[in-house]
User: What shape does this take?
Amino acid sequence: MAGDFSLLDGDAALSREEVLSLTATQRVEFYEGGVSHYSVGGAYSYTYAGGGTAFGRFQVGSDGVVCVDFRNGRHRCDQFVHSHGRVVMITEDGQRFPIRP
Assistant: This one.
């Protein structure tokens, strides 16, 4: 579903099943304060730490990569990895966002 992601030593990509389990909790909170919400029906929203929300639809590929089509026409894919004892979301442009347990 997406291109290559910049993995670091110690990163292990989550499987599709692990990502489905993670998104099934419906709420993924990041240390910087943002929160992703995943709906069983494929609806997605991201609430920014400073306020404001972006809405879209998501799907999880066979490789575990999550791609979101936003209502504003933007598109983004992310990969979740286990990295040194925590789960981290990596964006296509290489940004890394650790997830709160």
Summary: The chain has a mean pLDDT of 93.
